[in-house]
Each structure stands twice: as C-alpha cells, then as structure tokens.
Design a protein that fits this description.
Blueprint: E1 5-8, E2 15-18, H1 36-46, E3 56-63, E4 66-73, E5 79-83, E6 87-89, H2 95-102, E7 118-127, E8 139-142, E9 150-160, E10 164-173, E11 182-190, E12 196-201, H3 206-226, E13 228-237, E14 273-275, H4 290-307
Parallel strand pairs: 6-14
Antiparallel strand pairs: 1-2, 3-4, 4-5, 7-10, 7-13, 8-9, 9-10, 11-12
The structure holds flavin-adenine dinucleotide.
C-alpha cells in the first residue's frame, strides 16, 4: 500500500493504482504520461528516421521470397516506394492480412483463425437500500476458472432516486480458434486505393455455444443474487467485434500449416517481414488483448535489433 498512490479520474471517480515513485534513473514505475509522440521523440535520440505521416500502405514488395519495401499512397493517390530490409506490419487484425493477401504473400493460415470473445451484456436496476453504506463507484470483475471459461464485469452506470442504481453486466466467453473463421479478399470490390475489400466469415462451434449458454446462465444467477428490481435490457449476445478485441488472422506458431508467423512475429518463409498487432495472437482468453500484443511487439523489436546487431 505504501508505495502505491491512488489517483482519481474526474469523470467516474474510480480509483486507479499509480506508482509514481521515481526509479533510480529518474523514470517512474507507471508512466501514465506516456504517449506515442513521446516515444517517437525518444527514438530520435537513438537514430534518425523518416516518418511518413498520412501514408496508406497498399502493397508489400517482395523479390525472390524476400521483402524489400512497401508501396504507399498519399491522399491524392500518388504512389511511392519505401525501401527497407525489415518491414513490420501493425495495421490490425483486418488490415494486416488484407495487405498480405493483396501482396500475394503465401501462407496457409494468413487471414484464417479470426477470433474474438463471445460477448454478452445485460442492463438492470438494483436496489441498494438495504446496504449498510453508500455503494460509491461499483466495478466488480469475476475472473474465469478452468471450469468456467468466461469472466464478467459488473459496473454501476448511474444512480436512480430512492437508493436504486443502474448496472451493466458484461460477460466474455472464450471461443475456439478455427481455420473456418476467416477474412478473405473480395474479388469484386476494391477501395479508393485499389485494394480489394474484405469479406468476413465467422460462426460459433457447439462448444462456443455451450460457453455462451453457461455465461448467460451465470449472469442470470448473479442478477438474482443481486436482487435486481428491473431488467432494462435483456441478456443479449453482442455481435462479434463489438468489443474491438478481434485477433488471430496472422497467428504465431511453429507450424506453417496452422500459423502465419513464427514465434518472433516473422511471416513463415519471408525473412524481414514481421507482424506486430492483434492479428498474431493464436488464441484469445476472456480479457483485453492489447497488453499481450504490446509485449509481443517489444519482443519482436528486440529480436530484429539483435538480428541486426543492435540499433
Ligand atoms: C473505445 C475502445 C476502448 C478500448 N479499450 C481497450 C482496453 O481497455 N484494453 C485493451 O486491451 N484493448 C482495448 N481496446 C482495443 C484496442 O484498441 C485494440 O486491441 C488495439 O488497438 C489493437 O491494436 P492493433 O495494433 O491490432 O490495431 P490498431 O490499434 O487498429 O492499429 C492499426 C493502425 O494501422 C493503421 N493502418 C491500417 N491499415 C493501414 C494501411 N494500409 N496503411 C497505413 N496504416 C494503416 C490504422 O490507421 C491504425 O492506426 C479498445 C478499443 C476501443 C475502440
């Protein structure tokens, strides 16, 4: 408790744990002031680089199985070639496989194994009159277990007169990664840059549906235990992608038959071509993915730097 300071955000008054104690070199443990602009500024101290702002990548350029650059376009659709020995794609679970497929980069798993949580939601009114104290902000997270492959979050979203409060409960269940869930290029529709649009195929297995049913049942039990007085929005299954956690379309792994990249994020068979975004996650638990993706991206950066003999 001693070294952790607690900050409060004005909007919700939710306490946040921030460790602002300086390290011996002056940095602080939880850098809440971090931004990507600061990161770029720090990088300038290490080495000069060019930054192409507003450039839209349209194709990855390869020769004899090795990448040598990226074709980009500006807003006026003028095309340029950016040459590089190493290319790292961080364009998202949809855009990264789209670029790879459009560039005819070979790989059985590219675009496949699209995955997201099965996300459920319910809104209700709960009476807090019988509680011994005012509830304050309410954020409860019930984590998954081996037997219960889902988590749920309960949050108070507003007070209602007479000691009632409106709550939202969200349940997130695991979904099996499957080859059949995929994105692929639409042979007939292209965007304004001439890149084919994507078609998406996504469905649930009987096991996924069982997880969804269990999650809904548990949510019902929790609502009963909370003594809800009114359901304002029934338990419903949200559309895939609703939580922006979609992943998996360039999953990492050792086997090129079932994965798009190796363990360092390099596309199998294409030295110098890397992926560092949510698409490399081979499976998705029930929690938010971004910290894992960032950790893997740092690992990939370290790998490239060590391969190149450091920056
Ligand atoms: C409101 C909101 C709240 C969220 N909260 C959380 C949270 O609390 N925790 C969590 O873990 N996750 C959260 N997420 C999800 C998180 O934002 C994503 O998991 C994460 O951003 C995915 O990272 P990514 O690198 O895969 O893709 P993105 O963040 O989408 O990055 C892709 C980038 O590539 C650019 N790009 C795409 N195509 C091209 C192209 N052809 N040429 C050039 N540039 C291109 C895009 O403009 C974009 O900047 C939240 C998302 C939203 C919308």
């Amino acid at each position: 408790m001693s070294k952790w300071q607690y900050g409060f955000t004005k909007a919700t008054e939710t306490p946040r744990a921030l460790n602002l104690t300086p390290l011996k070199d002056g940095k602080i443990h939880s850098d809440v002031f971090f931004s990507s602009i600061l990161f770029l500024a720090q990088a300038l101290h290490l080495k000069n680089y060019d930054l192409a702002v507003g450039a839209r990548a349209t194709r990855i350029l390869t020769e004899k199985g090795r990448v040598y650059g990226v074709e980009v376009m500006d807003q006026e659709k003028n095309a340029y070639v950016l040459r590089a020995k190493n290319i790292v794609l961080s364009a998202s679970t949809f855009e990264t496989p789209r670029l790879l497929l459009h560039s005819r980069i070979q790989g059985k798993a590219i675009g496949h194994y699209l995955i997201d949580h099965a996300a459920l939601k319910v809104s209700a009114v709960v009476g807090f009159q019988d509680l011994p104290q005012v509830s304050g902000p309410l954020h409860i997270l019930v984590p998954p277990t081996r037997e219960l492959p889902y988590q749920f979050l309960i949050a108070k979203v507003g007070d209602i007169p007479d000691g009632n409060a409106e709550i939202i409960m969200r349940g997130y269940g695991t979904v099996e990664p499957r080859f059949e869930n995929k994105v692929e290029l639409d042979p007939e529709r292209v965007d304004e840059f001439g890149v084919p649009k994507l078609n998406v195929q996504y469905s649930y297995t009987p096991r996924d549906e069982e997880t969804i049913r269990k999650t809904a049942n548990t949510m019902e039990q929790v609502l009963t235990a909370l003594g809800v007085t009114k359901i304002t929005e029934d338990i419903c299954l949200r559309p895939p992608g609703d939580d922006h956690h979609e992943s998996g379309t360039c999953r990492m792994g050792d086997d090129p038959a079932t994965s798009a990249t190796n363990r360092f994020g390099q596309i199998h068979g294409y030295p110098g071509l890397f992926v560092a975004d949510n698409s490399i996650l081979p499976s998705l638990g029930v929690a938010n993915p971004t910290l894992t993706t960032v950790a893997l991206a740092i690992r990939t950066a370290d790998y490239i730097a060590s391969k190149e003999g450091g920056i």
